[in-house]
């Protein structure tokens, strides 16, 4: 019996799909731009639809759009014929996926959309298909070679449809100026949202920061530490970070040194400073490794230059715990 080389088969499938997917670049034309503009300016809901594997892709694209703040849901064309068309409004935009473009189940959905002037973005691979004829914006996907032995099973065709949907979604994200901060708003409880929290999202800033000029006295430092309640104070020289003094450092100094002792004799000259772009989870790891409860935060460019660094904020262990970073 001939032994089948499954790894070789998998590599051939991957090569076929990767090669064929490059044809997607033919799709990015004026119609694509119009689709992005229509979706980004939609005043209602973005409704995706499709049957079979196209339906699965439509569900995924709807989920992606919803995750970035666009009101979107998937509509099953078959169910739409039995009352669900009531969910479609004139302000909405329909994105209909059908590789052949001639699926019978989408007929009534298209008739309804055309009758009530609901905008339709049709995505299909046949220029003269029913779907593209009835669409306001026509997206013509390239004909691709399927990756299975018979060249008949939807493999590459579903991949390129999904790829187009992702390209469209990302273009819309750019158009509406979607960001990590907005992503966290729509995913406040998820692992992704929490992992995207950066130092700048949770750091203490402004008047809450315990800072003191290097020329000030030990007693002044103690008063500020007591009022800010973070257990530390940042010593600055000409507005830049010069060092760090802890509550314990100040108290021991007051007991053992002259009151006029300069702060530079007490402070730690090289405090730990992290970038404002540091992930919150990494900040917690640094605290654990260094056995500290606070980290100073500065601008990323300043840290890279390693010259005079201004204090932007402070991360306290309580800030991390309050945001669910453990």
Task: Write a structural description.
The radius of gyration is 29 Å and the shape is elongated. With 326 residues, the protein is of the alpha/beta class. Helix content is 43%, strand content 16%.
Task: Please outline the helices and strands.
Blueprint: H1 6-21, H2 30-40, E1 46-50, H3 53-67, E2 72-75, H4 77-80, E3 93-97, H5 107-115, E4 119-124, H6 130-133, E5 137-140, H7 156-175, H8 180-186, H9 191-195, H10 199-202, E6 211-213, H11 218-228, E7 232-237, E8 240-246, H12 247-256, E9 273-275, H13 280-290, E10 294-298, H14 300-305, E11 313-316, H15 317-322
Parallel strand pairs: 1-2, 1-3, 3-4, 4-5, 6-7, 9-10
Antiparallel strand pairs: 7-8, 10-11
